[in-house]
Amino acid sequence: MCQNCVNNVFPDRGHTCLENGSYLMNFASCAQCNKKEMIKIHNKEEREEDQEEIITYQHVCQNCDHVIAEHEYRFCVEDGYQEYQMTCLLCGSGEDSISILPDDPRKGMDLF
Fold it and tell me: What pTM value is reported for the model?
């Protein structure tokens, strides 16, 4: 991972969790070749561990193959909620939780 390639290290992305793609607004330029071109996705792996889907890949400079960042996305269903998590130097950190029920029981609790 290369902190010199990004504007902000692990920016807070709130509820945004990307299972593919790149957060190009945070890409400053490649620290190795000094170019700001499109970013390739390299070494993408999808696996399942303990009923959790995990997707990992590398963000790589299209020009010189310099590794910019390692991206990790996690998804699972736990206690009636879909849980999402993303960690990446370039794309940032994000978490989200969505009820699998049509009406989220947590939203009714906000009224009191």
Answer: 0.86
